[in-house]
Amino acid sequence: MKKKLINQRSTRLLYGCLLAFTSFCVTSYASSPLELQQTQQPITGTVTDAQGVVPGVTVLVKDKASGTLTDENGKFSIVATANDVLVFSYMGYKTVEITVANQTAIYLQLEEDTTQLKEVVLNAGYYSVKDRERTGSISRITAKDIETQPVTNVLATMQGRMAGVSITQTSGVPGSGFDIQIRGRNSLRADGNNPLYIVDGMPLGTESLGNSSFLSGLILPGSGVNSLSILNPADIESIEVLKDADATAIYGSRGANGVVLITTKKAKSGKTTLILNSFSGVGSISRRLDLMNTEQYLNMRRQAFANDGITTYPASAHDINGNWDENRYTDWQKELIGNTSLHRQVDASLSVGNEFTNLLLKVTNYNETSVFHGDFEYGKTAFQFSGNHQSSNKKLNMGLSIQYVIDKNDLPGTDLTLDAINLAPNAPALYDAEGNLNWENSTFVNPLRKIKEEYLAKSNFFNAGGTISYALLPNLELKTMAGFSSTRLNETKISPSTIYNPAFGLDSSVSILLQNEGYQQSWSLEPQMHWKKDFGKSALSVLVGSTFQERNFGSRAIEAMGFTSNSLIYNMAAAANIAIYNNDNSIYRYNAVFGRVNYNLHEKYIINLTGRRDGSSRFGPGKQFANFGAIGAAWLFGKERLIRERLSVVSFGKLRASYGSTGSDQIGNYQFLDTFSSTGIPYQGSIGLEPTRLFNPDFSWEINKKFETAIDLGLWNDRIFITTAYFRNRSSNQLVGIPLPGTTGFTSILSNFPAEVENSGIELEWHSKNIETINFSWSSSFNVTFPKNELISFPDLERSTYANQYVVGEPLNIRLVYHYTGMNPETGFYEFEDYNNDGFIRPGDDRKKHIDLTPSYFGGLQNSLRYKKWHFDFLFQFTKQLAPNFNTYKSMPGLAVNQSVDVMTGTQPYSAGFNSQATSAYTFYRTSDAAFTDASFIRLKNIALSYAFQTRNGWGCKVYMQGQNVLTFTNYKGLDPENYSGSKIPPLRVFTLGTQLTF
Amino acid sequence: MKTNKIIKITNLILLFFAFSCEEFVSIDVPDTQLSGEQVFNDVRTAESVLTHVYTKLHNSVVVTGDSGGITVLLGNYADELTCYNANLPELVFNENQLLESTTTIHNFWRDTYHLIYVLNTVIEGVGNSTTIVEADRDRLIGEALFVRAYLHFYLNQLFGEVPYVKSTDYRLNTTISKESSSTIYSFIEQDLISAESLLVDTYTGDYRVRPNRSAVVAMQARLYLYHGEWELARQKATAVIENTGLYQWVEDLNSVFLRNSTGTIWQLMSSPEGKNTLEAKSFVFTLVPPPNRALAQDFITQFETGDLRAIDWVKSVTNGMETYYHPFKYKLNVDTSTSMEYPIQFRLEEMYLIRAEAYAELGFFDLSKMDINKIRNRAGLGTTAAQTKNELITAILKERKFEFFCELGHRFFDLKRRGLLDTTLSNVKPGWNSTDVLFPLPENELLLNSNLLPQNPGY
């Protein structure tokens, strides 16, 4: 390490600043600046390579702001002192540093850097692989991409950045989840498409800890709080997504939906660095519906009753029967979900170390208020520790990473979005003159009762992953990965008597506190042996290992009723009755042996074999074990002489292909058992028991066979790098909850699905360095995926319960709907195609129109621009798709529900619900192709602008502005084209300002 | 030296991989659950499965006093209640605008068949059990058969032809066909006959929260009444009325719905102790206008002058300008230190009015009048003026209307079985159609099992 010299002009050191920005402002802990005022001298020179002169080589004076480029003859001239170091760099060549000393002319021959790409090493879980030599499909993002985004969920950071990975945000509520699909929907079970998440070697249990049926269901979509939603994105160094069989088969049964490897931040070797970072910002909902105003709304209502021939408005029609002021107008979207949320984060990290030992400590505190009416707040405090040590003989290596996160989420009990878009615009004020909830003489069901039902989730997440490896022989390494993780959730929801209209005359004896405690605790142990042998022209590496994993879950939901006072509602001791609704414990055990053999010939031909034998406690006796495996091969054709000599524009070329099988055991525990569970409710003093499920002892592993072929191409010294992949995954024997009619007593039974499903697609990734000069650079990344999904075969579909859901040859993600043919010229009502010409519109007979909801394509375009010390990054995310529009969650125009202004034209005559012909026509309309519209969108997902510089004493400083969900371009008729829901707030648009200091 | 090292390494490797075994991934039934076999080996746990059905009936299914039960839904559907809250699912019932996609209907169907499934697990599980003694076995199976018949009775009344599910085998039940109403009737009759033979008249546990033999007989009386089997209806009703050791007439109208009422034949338990009825929670309000629902203004004006039921079982709420009324049979919408009221499924008054109707049909007019007057006199009304059969039937229907208003849909079923729905409802309910006599079969069920086709007329 050369000592850094800093003179008084150091604030203008461009190179240092750039370096500081791109690598987290990691600068050395400088010794006191040396006051060296040496004479400047001009230096000239020529840069060549094996073939001749090289124009465009960057020549920089190290740690100073001056620099130049070689001209078309490879010549340069620059001014420097004798102590200065010149840095010569050029894409595709090794960077060279030369101390000026007393030279005035420098002649340099650059060496081609064949290892440049090679040095990008990807984490493939049990092993790491040089990007250049991988045979599988792996996408990755790093902290550089993550830290430009003011988000709290790990999955949010990946949106739009990876080909083949589709991520949708289900709600804008803080702490809510994301849906992820890696290469399409493999499973018909909604909860069966989650990839395997691994944090520092420790599998992360993403099962929900919450109780969505009693507590979180109305505010947090999906399953509520889980470990993934708690994890702190700021602690993450990189995320790798394994997609094809070659990469995932080593995860066997858990790899069918892909594997997400999360690596947390590690200490950088040998430097003491303190980074302080802070940002704050504001958020608001990103889209709204354009709703009717009071005049338009009341006209609709009056017209509706007139059309129905009703002259006396019914008792329940408060909006027009005189009970409510007909001149009032409230923008309920603004009132209920239109607040500005405040976002604030402070984090600090300290990294220390020496040659053998490095330590990192990081603490993050994040707060976010809500856009809902009322005071709600989400907070996350995260601690991160990472340490690694190497023995002085370099044989023993140890690493340990620990995350501890405290998460607190205070939310209204119910998402108010539906109220915001449904309430009549002339509905009364929310509060009366005394500041109490206004019930307008019992005519107004005040939506704020839902925010009085406060939901509070407190969770703790602890994850520790460690590795010990010992080089027993020069070629043989023994390694053990071990991990422990524990997540605890305590969630409460209150229903104080004040949520009820005082007309019921209720007091705190009806107040309820619901509490649920959930935990998950797991350990994992993976002893492995790595053997490597270099034969000169070829290399062989072998890995064998085994996995032992156990995960314990538990939950207990308690209802406390009848409080002496509403002020004591969080005190269970003040409750008259306490009932335990649910108390579950379960255990999951998993055991496997796995291996990998990789053979590399001439660094040109690579073959990779992986396999795994899995056993899972989720299957019944005799069905627990299964084998999975894959073969992957790569040919680095760019290294063939023919290409090198004749096609020198191709700097890198690789063809790769893989085929293999994976499985999935994401079916929940004990599904094969016939069990009864306690209901928690006593009758005659004894607690009820109910059958837990329809049981099927005979289901077995589902098989997912994956094929992929891809070409990686680097052009013009890898200034442009293109990857094109074709994949085709076929799953059969799928484990699904087969829907059952109610007469069976249950809604589904877990069974092996008799059909074969194919997910195929083309993925394209493009990275280019468009412009690279000293002052200005511009690089782009683009990815696009064209997915295709098809139900290939389904024996006896017609007689199964899926008969009205799927069609052979069509995607799984279709809806069978009526075909809307227009309005009847006489009655004005909607009409639909009568497919079997029987004169009736019937769901079974006439829902024959197929609507495909699989996106045609999706992807993202990222650009990074740098001008001197300014950096500007922006990401566009795009999707081409059809989606259900607002008609699917809006009731018939004319009823006491506000409507989009769109319904004022081109719709059937309004009805207040008394014309059954209108009502049924409208019901068909909601389930017809008219309820689906184009929901394609282009979203300016993220922008990040930063200015980085160094202070005189060598401290790094960065100020930045970031924006998330900045702009959305879409013609979608509804709230948000991403989650297309009418009951959840759209993703928030967030802008933040921040500063980062590095010492 | 080198071989030594190799042996060491081999040993280490063997140590690493020797653990993989099937035992590691074999797990027991979780400690918070019981296996099906265990449940029916112990009478206490078998009992808990059955009583869970009663809890469900109380809290959320078919006969619940909550807003998803027939008390509220059919009160709206017929002419008893007015809905004042446009956000409530019952509004479409009030407006008689049901659709095959109406969620309430689908939930109603699924929840009912789920309970039938649970009852069938009891019938099969207890039947196969070798450890439960005969007396317990008879009682458990008898109750389960009775409730199975009771639920199918309501399904048939509301949906018309429906499957009669007698097994837990999902393969059979997935493609099960509808039965004709006459077959359903005979299945109900058979189940009730079996239940009657298996049960005794002693109630299990405190109060009358478990059906006994008389509850089965009372149900038989109702079944025969609905099917015009007058003599059988008379016999069954009489059998209960004459069981005076268990059932005594309650003179005080305000005591009829208390949990220790001697006129109760079967009630559901409000649990835990201190809870009262969901009926009271559904109906009681203290400020006007009514937040959710109230007695229809038309309905209230039809009470005869001097009818004490209009005073004791109805409560008026006024703000000085407007007055609204709510059912007040069950009075406690809040918890009390010990529970005071339990929702009643069968009470003695129904047996009198069933017998009155049977007598009238069989030509015993005087006996019929005596039974009618028993009801009228308690309500503070004079003897009935009805003389002819038709007058008597009209008088009985009127008495049933004011005796059983807002109780388990009696009003709707009475109009239905007497063919009076159209004439009565089309005047007061603008949305009423003749085909509304049956609910639609849930659309999703038709899509999942085409053997349930065709849909009921009008939907």
From TrEMBL, chain A:
<dbReference type="InterPro" id="IPR039426">
    <property type="entry name" value="TonB-dep_rcpt-like"/>
</dbReference>
<dbReference type="Pfam" id="PF13715">
    <property type="entry name" value="CarbopepD_reg_2"/>
</dbReference>
<dbReference type="Pfam" id="PF07715">
    <property type="entry name" value="Plug"/>
</dbReference>
<dbReference type="GO" id="GO:0044718">
    <property type="term" value="P:siderophore transmembrane transport"/>
</dbReference>
<protein>
    <submittedName>
        <fullName>SusC/RagA family TonB-linked outer membrane protein</fullName>
    </submittedName>
</protein>
<dbReference type="GO" id="GO:0015344">
    <property type="term" value="F:siderophore uptake transmembrane transporter activity"/>
</dbReference>
<feature type="signal peptide">
    <location>
        <begin position="1"/>
        <end position="28"/>
    </location>
</feature>
<keyword id="KW-0998">Cell outer membrane</keyword>
<dbReference type="InterPro" id="IPR023997">
    <property type="entry name" value="TonB-dep_OMP_SusC/RagA_CS"/>
</dbReference>
<comment type="similarity">
    <text>Belongs to the TonB-dependent receptor family.</text>
</comment>
<dbReference type="InterPro" id="IPR036942">
    <property type="entry name" value="Beta-barrel_TonB_sf"/>
</dbReference>
<dbReference type="InterPro" id="IPR023996">
    <property type="entry name" value="TonB-dep_OMP_SusC/RagA"/>
</dbReference>
<dbReference type="InterPro" id="IPR012910">
    <property type="entry name" value="Plug_dom"/>
</dbReference>
<dbReference type="InterPro" id="IPR000531">
    <property type="entry name" value="Beta-barrel_TonB"/>
</dbReference>
<dbReference type="InterPro" id="IPR008969">
    <property type="entry name" value="CarboxyPept-like_regulatory"/>
</dbReference>
<dbReference type="InterPro" id="IPR037066">
    <property type="entry name" value="Plug_dom_sf"/>
</dbReference>
<keyword id="KW-1134">Transmembrane beta strand</keyword>
<keyword id="KW-0813">Transport</keyword>
<keyword id="KW-0732">Signal</keyword>
<dbReference type="GO" id="GO:0009279">
    <property type="term" value="C:cell outer membrane"/>
</dbReference>
<feature type="domain" description="TonB-dependent receptor plug">
    <location>
        <begin position="132"/>
        <end position="259"/>
    </location>
</feature>
<dbReference type="Pfam" id="PF00593">
    <property type="entry name" value="TonB_dep_Rec_b-barrel"/>
</dbReference>
From TrEMBL, chain B:
<feature type="domain" description="SusD-like N-terminal">
    <location>
        <begin position="78"/>
        <end position="225"/>
    </location>
</feature>
<keyword id="KW-0732">Signal</keyword>
<protein>
    <submittedName>
        <fullName>Membrane protein</fullName>
    </submittedName>
</protein>
<dbReference type="InterPro" id="IPR011990">
    <property type="entry name" value="TPR-like_helical_dom_sf"/>
</dbReference>
<dbReference type="InterPro" id="IPR012944">
    <property type="entry name" value="SusD_RagB_dom"/>
</dbReference>
<dbReference type="InterPro" id="IPR033985">
    <property type="entry name" value="SusD-like_N"/>
</dbReference>
<comment type="similarity">
    <text>Belongs to the SusD family.</text>
</comment>
<dbReference type="Pfam" id="PF07980">
    <property type="entry name" value="SusD_RagB"/>
</dbReference>
<dbReference type="GO" id="GO:0009279">
    <property type="term" value="C:cell outer membrane"/>
</dbReference>
<dbReference type="Pfam" id="PF14322">
    <property type="entry name" value="SusD-like_3"/>
</dbReference>
<feature type="domain" description="RagB/SusD">
    <location>
        <begin position="315"/>
        <end position="422"/>
    </location>
</feature>
<feature type="signal peptide">
    <location>
        <begin position="1"/>
        <end position="20"/>
    </location>
</feature>
<keyword id="KW-0998">Cell outer membrane</keyword>
<keyword id="KW-0472">Membrane</keyword>
